[in-house]
Amino acid sequence: MNDRKREQEERSLGDVITRIMKAYQLDDKMIEMDVLARWEELMGRAVAVRTKKISIRNGVLHLELDSSVMREELMYGKSIIIQRINETAGKELIRDVWFS
């Protein structure tokens, strides 16, 4: 293999990882994981300590809270939650929030 052809085929490790993530559709999953890991930063400590389970499935954020008062309060702020998460993700990651 000549040097010129080799230079054209060389890619940075970051580029290769990005291409693999897209090929296996893992890039959205990584964004979801990042958002979930930053839940306390996004919503504050009071909400985070009352959140028992959190997940994202099919564009819906599923929250299980241990406080009915907090659940009621967050229901009124669904649009703010959606906006914060989507801004953090840099794309429309969620369209709705379901509480349990």
Describe this structure in words.
The protein has 100 residues and is of the alpha+beta class. β1 (51-57) and β2 (60-65) form a beta hairpin. It contains seven helices and three strands; from the N terminus they run αααααββααβ. The protein has a single domain, classed as GMP Synthetase, Chain A, domain 3, CATH 3.30.300. It has helices spanning 3-9, 13-23, 27-37, 39-43, 45-50, 68-76, 78-89; strands at residues 51-57, 60-65, 96-99.
| Strands in their spatial order, largest beta sheet | 1-2-3
Number of strands: 3
Report strand %: 15-25%
Radius of gyration: 19 Å
CATH architecture type: 2-Layer Sandwich
| Percentage of residues assigned to helices | 55-70%
H/E series, N to C?
A: HHHHHEEHHE
Shape: elongated
User: What is the count of DSSP helices, taking H or I runs of 4+ residues?
Assistant: 7
Whole-number count of domains: 1
